[in-house]
Write a structure and sequence with these properties.
This protein is of the alpha+beta class. It has two domains: about 5-150, 3-Layer(aba) Sandwich (NADH Oxidase), CATH 3.40.109; about 160-265, NADH Oxidase (3-Layer(aba) Sandwich), CATH 3.40.109. The protein is about 35% helix and about 20% strand. Helix 3 crosses helix 10 and helix 9 packs antiparallel against helix 10. Bound molecules: flavin mononucleotide (FMN). Flavin mononucleotide (FMN) binds near residues 65, 109 and 193.
Length: about 270
């Protein structure tokens, strides 16, 4: 499946069939994890965790948010500048790979028992465990909680393009027409998952081929993680469309409308 298709297909899946992942799929995901690296020189790792057999069951508490999952992915990273963004970028690549395999996933930043997961992960002294996700076969049976969270609705209820992306400065909304070749990469940012669906990223198209990414505040303090996901969607879509460029941190771009993170410069 193409990246663009995987981004469009992905949604939070909270109810699973209890069936453990097949060995073939596990191997594919583990191989993919070995191949990908976090950007910005960030030291991040993704671990595969299994609940095990009934005889030796490992408990992964999710406070009732997730049901039936037998396998989990856990993201850990070493504290450093852009570590949270880089780790999230890496994790989203794996999430999209799993989507391409037809599997369900759900980013979890709050609703999981850190104690349960840390027991299985064994962190190095500088390492942080911030995010986990179940990975498995989606159950056709939706639970009441899932309906109440409006999981399906969330996926389409994103803010309009012109309220997230701006033309030269924050006063002028960007149109898809004005965005040109960047319309689709930005659309893939728009539909990205974010904590509480807060969509805490803003992008200013400053001049041709130069885009500045800003973080706004998000509920629960996940704006850097949300940004990492957005940067992943943006760059991976550019790659797929053959748009060349790179991320660079620039000076003097602070703004009251958001906390400056990084810029994309086209080549
Ligand atoms: C960083 C992050 C943390 C999240 N934490 C949780 C969580 O703790 N519990 C949960 O049920 N969903 C969590 N989500 C899922 C979001 O609620 C979901 O991505 C958003 O509502 C958009 O819906 P969608 O993923 O179906 O497109 C999280 C998502 C992100 C990106």
């Amino acid at each position: 499946m193409s990246i663009i298709e995987s981004i469009k297909q992905r949604k939070s899946v909270r109810t699973y069939t209890s069936q453990p992942l097949s060995k073939e799929l596990k191997d594919k995901i583990e191989n993919f994890i070995r191949q990908v690296q976090a950007p910005f020189g960030v030291e991040a790792r993704i671990r595969f965790l299994h609940t095990g057999t009934d005889a030796e069951r490992v408990k992964f508490g999710t406070y009732g948010f997730i049901s039936g999952a037998s396998d989990y992915l856990a993201l850990t990273y070493e504290e450093a500048p852009l570590a949270e963004e880089g780790g999230a970028y890496l994790f989203e690549q794996v999430i999209l790979f799993c989507t391409g395999l037809g599997l369900g996933t759900c980013w979890l930043g709050g609703s999981f028992s850190r104690k349960d997961f840390k027991r299985q992960v064994q962190l190095n002294p500088n390492e942080r465990l911030r995010i986990v996700s179940p990975v498995g076969y989606e159950s056709g049976r939706k639970r009441l909680l899932e309906f109440l969270q409006g999981a399906e609705k969330h996926h389409i209820s994103r803010k309009p393009f012109g309220t997230l992306f701006f033309d030269k400065n924050f006063a002028v909304p960007l149109t898809e027409e004005k965005a040109g070749i960047y319309a689709q990469p930005l659309e893939m940012v728009r539909i990205a998952p974010s904590a509480n669906n807060s969509q805490s990223w803003r992008v200013v198209l400053a001049e041709e081929g130069v885009l500045h990414f800003y973080k706004t505040t998000s509920l629960g303090g996940f704006s850097a993680t949300d940004m990492g996901i957005a940067l992943c969607h943006f760059e991976q879509t550019c790659k797929e469309l053959g748009i060349k460029g790179y991320f660079k941190m620039m000076n003097g771009l602070e703004n009251k409308q958001g906390k400056y993170c990084i810029s994309w410069i086209s080549e």
